[in-house]
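Collaborator request, handled under Task 6.
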Amino acid sequence: MAGPTFLIVRGEDFVVLAVEWAGCEVRTDAHAAAPRLVATGTDPTVTLTFPPQAILEQATPAEFHTTAAVHSHSWLSEPSRLVFRVATGTVIELTAQGILDALARPGQAHIDGQASGIELPWGLTVLPLARTTGAQVLSDHRTRPVPVAGSGAVGLWTARLRAGDAGATDALLAIRPTSFRDTDAPPSTDGPFQKPPLRGQRQAIVTSSAQDGPPDATRLELTALGGTLSAGAQWPSLTWTHEATVGRDQRADVTVSGKLWPFGFSCVYQDFTRREFLPRYDPAAAGCVAALRRQRTLVISRPLLTGTRAPTFPFDEVELLGCEFSLTGTTEPTDFLEFLPGGPSSPVRFPVRCRAGGTTVQFTIPLVFVSDTRPGPSQAVVDSWRPFAKAPVPGVALDLVGAGGRPGDVQEVRSLTFTAAAHGTGYRPDLAGFDVVLSALRTLLPGSGHEQPQPMTYAAALRGQPAAAAVSVPRVPLVFAAPDGLLVDFTRNADRSGGLVAPRFKADGISRELGPVVTDTLPGGTDLAAALERAFKGATLFGFPLAALIDTSGSTKPNPPKIVQRWTGLETSTEMEWQALPLKAYNAFQPATAARLDLSVGSRPPARALPEAAAPPAQTCVLRNVALALPPPPAARLLTLSFGSVTFDQRPGRPTQLALDAPKIAFSGPLKLLQELQRKLEALLGAGLTCRVSPTGVTVGYEITLPKTAAGMFVMQNVAARLAVTVPYAEKPVTVTLGFASREHPFALSVTGFSGGGYASVEIAGAGEPTVEISMEFGAMVAVDFVVARAEVHALGGVRFVRRADGALELEAFIRIGGSVRLLGLVTVSVELRVALLFHDDGRPSLVGRATLVIELDLTLYSQSVTVDSGTFELVGGIDPGHTALAPEAAEARSAAAFEAWEQYRKAFAS
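Structure tokens returned to the collaborator:
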């Protein structure tokens, strides 16, 4: 049971101690100068309590530029105590000298380190232990004041702790930290000061000491003014060196071995605090301040990592360009075992260089320090780093797959987003994503947004594969990060995709062989036809829906178009190819034999370095075995227009060419009567080809005019056949036009007094309904001459039929009946009746008519013409919505005007 506590104070050498005991009795003797303490128990102890042994001070990063008093915040430690075990029967005189003398005898008293507790340095409570098993911890101290020779002063009383087997320079002690505190000293940043030493590091010292052994202490001394300590430890990932003199820290060094996540560069984090004499500038007097300077540094011990390539990391080597990085002045970490150097508000950016084959990229990026004691950073630290995970890089051709260097593997990378992947018990560098510019699309479709980087990542099939040489690479290893993929659209720029075909699809990834693709359209899918229908919505081939023409029934399934860019050294070449694409019948597209498409667009480096091979090759699109049937099935066929091939050809420096090979026209059904005309036309189609290039497209065609034919009373002239194919560059279908004569130039036919003419035109534009326009005119004219009188009578009529592409019908008919008589060259009378009928079928069928009567009298001195117009009247369909019926008064006025005109004519003739 502990006894009362007493205070020992000796002013000569500054002894200030509290003393208490247990297992002892106090005995007095009249003959003794002072009471005596006798150890009578089985385990008697005497405990000395010392004043605080450590003072915590702030550190400063620079010299002092002030004339005021220089001070920093400081905090005192808690009191320390030493528990001495004394031998039973020991008698101790209860005086300062008697107690100190008894506790200084090695055979009579020794320190119980497990029961003691010394707070030195500040915030760490340590146990003084002997390093050698079985050795005792002793206290060497003077029992009486010791004068300093020649000075008249007395030395400061000091308790020097040592092991029983210690030498002159090493106390052979170990200090075991048992507890720590940090919160009692709030971090202050007043003025130029920083946080004090060991801030946030005491817990790691206690943990490492418990796991890997306590630090060694070569010197441990206690005084009433503060303790002196020289101690240090080197654990597997942490080292600590500490020196303090009379309670003041002189050196506090902590190093932590770790790695820079996510790459894994081995490094050492150094947090060194040293006491230095810093100049204090004062106009009156110069001086120095013994202040603490704290320096924090990252030292890279392994800046080069090799063999880093993995299925989702395309670099063979990663190098950190620098061996030492100062962190002094940056935000201090809360947890020094894992932190983002510089903090989230202003992180330190490290220069990194990555090599993939012969390609290198260099960038700067923040990295996370992680102690070797931890498998990786916590999620909170990763989240603070993630906004800086993307590193911009200059556009460089990078093989992102590294498994043979196929065209789709190499992309122009503009940024890399890094992360780390699990690897064994640790981690390895990985790519979470990357931004690429699709160079092939940028070349083929300039100004359409493809010069902007597109976010991408690796396919899920590559994630989780081991970092080994044998990797199973999927057909589409790179996928677009955007949910809707990337729109590839040639419909507005058909001239850049071969004119005849305008692909349009939303690519969800990049194929190794084909470039941007819709994954479902690759051969091997469960329903390729449905996938093509979904993928190529809006795409066209010869004006028809592209997906509807692709034949998927064969044993060899068609591939999507290949759009890639090849890199040959510093030169690039763009390829867009779609070879031997099988086509099937759809709508008016009805080939008799197997049709196919061959597309080759872009530029390739010449195979040989010869002058004639230096020019870029032609860019062609060939559609073979084309046949268009009218009307489209299932209606009975009347007309078939076919070509052996249609070729769209572009060469640098030359106008675009469109060529038609072996055009044929075949009539069937009711049009078989035109077979003779067909035969003659086919014989003439070998010449007369015209090609017109405009900013909007290319038109190629034939126009054959048959010579005027006369045989007796039979005359036929202006018989011309027209065939034209127009390939637009804009978002319009390819159109094919077939016609005989035209509205502007109808053919003419006359037989004696009867004559007539007309034209016929058919226009096919993709899958829409063909436009058909037919016009026929007929009539007869008879003239007689009896010298004194001449007369003429005529009757003419015609019909015009138009079926527009929207299916609406329009029919126009007219008739003209009239005649004239001329007597003796003095009087001429002519009468003409014109009747026109117009049929509409655009929602509400209607037949609208109009009749006009014109009577003209021409005398030698007088001429008058009278016109009577019926106005528009509707024969079928009810009242015309666009026609406003006349009020009764207006109708009566019109009738009166017509009657007045007739009266004028009659009176003039009678006179």
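The cover message to the collaborator said: "Residues 606-615, 878-886 have pLDDT under 50 and may be disordered. The helical segments are 96-103, 202-212, 379-385, 439-444, 528-535, 546-549, 675-684, 888-910. Please let us know whether this matches your experimental observations."
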